[in-house]
Specification:
The protein is an alpha/beta fold. The chain has helices spanning 26-41, 51-54, 90-95, 98-107, 129-135, 155-165, 202-205, 209-221, 235-242, 254-262, 273-280, 327-338; strands at 17-21, 45-49, 64-66, 83-86, 109-112, 143-144, 189-196, 225-228, 264-270, 285-288, 305-308. The strands form two sheets. It has a six-stranded parallel sheet, sandwiched between helices.
Length: 340
């Protein structure tokens, strides 16, 4: 990356090359795609890096989306850019020494939902007047996206506020322009409901398998078409649990899953990435959340959605929240979403 102290020939914002490196979870990956599209709309020439985002590249032809470089060449791959904004992926965070961190934070603006103090660095202090004018708030955007106290805002709303107040972007929208692959029709199967019973934190976040299977039967009895969709590494287990009673389609990559979700009517999920993906695609969601907080920050918030919380909690009895969410509550939420 060009050092910010070096004067350069006058170039416009659109000529400057900016890289945005996404964190490597599904929910975060979608948040950074929204950020990249808003940077583009504000005149930046943006390249977005992320293995999750790369699997959705055909849906966003307006963006240049690239996979992560090889770990051994990761840092060097970004020397070509005028400015780099990075939420380092987990494999990079694990390998960072204190020396690595000190070097990288002076070259890149390090961001995340929450960041350690050691990530902070104000790039505006060393910038030439030309670059300060050109990049504006981007030079001082390093640090937490959750940069102040928030109450009921979703992570989507928090990120929009961060882009407005810390990046100083003027044109902002949470709706990312999507170009679905040829032949797909939005919600073609309005009674097909995708059931997503897994998550990245099964011990804490997942409703019980028995609850999901009972929900599938309840939905079928009401004329819906439940399909159980899980990550590839959980597919064999859920295929056994479904025992032929309900379809369990398997999707080898995110793009294929997105196509299936896009043509479905609803998604029911734990607090998980699949809920964010469905919402990102404009599919109404029902999220099962373990705490009594329907406005928790990480709820899906690109499309209409309902968060179902336990009707009662027993704080001293871990996992008891699962007893107080019922299939009837989920069915009622779906019917309410259908009526709007």
């Amino acid at each position: 990356m060009h050092t910010l102290e070096q004067p350069r020939a006058s170039i416009s914002r659109g000529d400057a090359r900016v890289a945005l490196i996404s964190f490597d979870s599904l929910g975060d990956g979608l948040i950074y795609l929204m950020m990249a599209d808003n940077l583009r709309a504000n005149g930046y020439q943006i390249d977005c890096y992320g293995n999750i985002a790369y699997q959705l590249r055909d849906w966003l032809p307006q963006l240049n989306i690239l996979p992560y470089p090889a770990p051994s060449a990761f840092e060097a791959a970004f020397e070509q850019y005028d400015f780099v904004i990075a939420s380092p992926p987990s494999f990079l965070r694990r390998s960072f020494s204190e020396t690595d961190l000190q070097r990288v934070r002076q070259k890149w603006a390090l961001i995340c939902q929450k960041t350690p103090q050691s990530w902070l660095h104000d790039h505006s202090a060393a910038a030439s007047p030309e670059l300060a004018h050109q990049f504006g708030g981007l030079l001082s955007c390093a640090g937490p996206i959750r940069f102040k106290t928030f109450d009921q805002e979703s992570v989507v709303e928090i990120t929009l506020q961060y882009m407005r107040e810390r990046m100083c972007l003027e044109r902002l929208t949470k709706q990312v322009s999507l170009t679905p692959p040829s032949g797909l029709k939005h919600r073609r199967h309005p009674r097909r409901i995708v059931i997503s019973p897994d998550s990245a934190g099964p011990e804490k976040k997942n409703w019980s398998p028995a609850g999901f299977l009972k929900l599938c039967q309840t939905l079928r009895d009401k004329g819906y078409e439940p399909h159980i969709v899980v990550a590839p590494n959980n597919h064999a287990r859920w295929e056994r649990l479904a025992d032929g009673r309900f379809p369990t389609p398997r999707f080898p990559e995110i793009g294929a899953l997105a196509a299936f979700l896009y043509e479905s009517g609803f998604l029911v999920a734990n607090d998980s990435g699949n809920g964010h993906l469905a919402s990102f695609l404009g599919i109404p969601t029902v999220t099962l959340y373990r705490k009594k907080n329907p406005l928790f920050h990480w709820r899906p918030d690109w499309a209409p959605g309902v968060v179902i919380c336990p009707s009662f909690t027993l704080p001293k009895l871990e996992g008891s929240w699962r007893w107080f969410i019922t299939p009837a509550m989920v069915l009622r939420a779906i019917e309410n979403l259908s009526s709007h």
